[in-house]
Amino acid sequence: MFPFSGSVVVPQVTVTLTFSSDNTMAGTTIVTYSSTHNGSINFYKDPNHYQDERYLKDPDWVKEESQNLLNSTKTLEIPTSYDSQASQIITKISVK
After folding, report:
1. pTM (two decimals)
2. Phi-psi region of 12 (alpha: psi -120 to 50; beta: other; left: phi over 0)
């Protein structure tokens, strides 16, 4: 869940998307999800920065915090009613 010692590991393969509305860390959004392979995703609410010094100094705290984050996972249904519009948008995305 976290890039620090003590963190629990997400039990399935995930995808992480990062984007910034203004090219600053404050404007950055991080989205992590995993597929359920049935038309929904598991959504993980990632922090966009880690300011608490315990991330570096307290692996037990990191384990507890990362487990809390894993426990707060939301399953979201992904509607397929807009697939044709989505495919048009995807063709316009530029990956740098």
Report:
1. 0.66
2. beta
